[in-house]
Every structure is written in structure tokens, then in C-alpha cells.
Automatic annotation (TrEMBL):
<dbReference type="Pfam" id="PF03167">
    <property type="entry name" value="UDG"/>
</dbReference>
<keyword id="KW-0227">DNA damage</keyword>
<dbReference type="InterPro" id="IPR015637">
    <property type="entry name" value="MUG/TDG"/>
</dbReference>
<dbReference type="InterPro" id="IPR036895">
    <property type="entry name" value="Uracil-DNA_glycosylase-like_sf"/>
</dbReference>
<feature type="domain" description="Uracil-DNA glycosylase-like">
    <location>
        <begin position="8"/>
        <end position="165"/>
    </location>
</feature>
<dbReference type="InterPro" id="IPR005122">
    <property type="entry name" value="Uracil-DNA_glycosylase-like"/>
</dbReference>
<dbReference type="GO" id="GO:0004844">
    <property type="term" value="F:uracil DNA N-glycosylase activity"/>
</dbReference>
<dbReference type="GO" id="GO:0006285">
    <property type="term" value="P:base-excision repair, AP site formation"/>
</dbReference>
<dbReference type="GO" id="GO:0008263">
    <property type="term" value="F:pyrimidine-specific mismatch base pair DNA N-glycosylase activity"/>
</dbReference>
<keyword id="KW-0378">Hydrolase</keyword>
<protein>
    <recommendedName>
        <fullName>Uracil-DNA glycosylase-like domain-containing protein</fullName>
    </recommendedName>
</protein>
<keyword id="KW-0234">DNA repair</keyword>
Amino acid sequence: MHTAEIPDHLAEDMKLLFIGFNPSLRSGETGHHYANPHNRFWRLLHAAGLTERVHRPEEDGSLSGWYGYGFTNIVSRPTRTAAEITKEEYGEGRELLKQKLIMYKPRFACYVGKGVYEQFSGRKDVSWGLQPAGVVAQVQDYVVPSSSGLVRMSFEAVAAWYNELRQLLQTSDDA
């Protein structure tokens, strides 16, 4: 089994940049974001109305053109669990992620899991949803529950946070 870093999908004028901990081993094998069949990410996007249908991981690079969505991770090395990520990898990842946010300035940075945002922002006791102040100027930070199949929240409870994000995106589109 060969795992490798998977490519970021970044573009200027992104509406939304999804930021994960790091790729799963399955994503490392396939080269696509949220490729583990137990991950609920693609179903959550559709259930929340963020996409018109349930997309496949192989379509991750197309979502920028279709919806204005991008993908990256705080750490690029695929692992079985986020617990395998080292302090050094987080430190390096924080700096690289900040550079990406400064360069591309997505309207919203969506952190897929509280731990991702805590590692990036250095903040503790983070709540779900829109954060009071973004880490990078002109980028609004939004935190959703992880889409991992290991998360014990119901699909509906997780989808509600993605739905709120969709509503914020629509409001910002209308502004």
C-alpha cells in the first residue's frame, strides 16, 4: 500500500476552503480528499445544500470551478488517525496554511473538526459555527464537526452545521 500527499485544490476567488486535519490513508492511496468510504463529507455537502448532488472524491478538483470550493489540510501526510500527527508537523502546517489563506483569501475557511481549528488558531474552547474573529484578515473562520465516520454525532446534527454554513454563503453572495 503506497500513500502519498494529496494535492491541494486552491484558486483565487474561492467562496469556501475546506480544511481538514490531514488525509486518511485511503485518500493517500487514491490522491483525493475525503476518499474513505466511511467518511460522510460528500453526503453532508449534499444534505446541507452545498452541492447539487453527492459528489465522488475523484471530483474534488472540479468543485472549485463548479461551486468555488477548495480543499487543503493543516498537515499533508496521510495517517490512520490524527493522533499520529507530530507537534513539528502541526507547527509547519500552521505556517503553510496561514500563507495559503493570505494568498488565496477564500470568503470562508471551513475547518472540518474543532481540533483542526484549535491547532491552527491556538484557541481553546472553540464552539461550532462562525468564529468571532478570523485568524487571517478578510477570511471568515467557520468550524463544523468532523465528517469522519468515527464521530459520534448523528448525521443530522452534523449536517445542521453544514447547512448553517450554506446559509452564510448565500447571505454573503447576496451582499
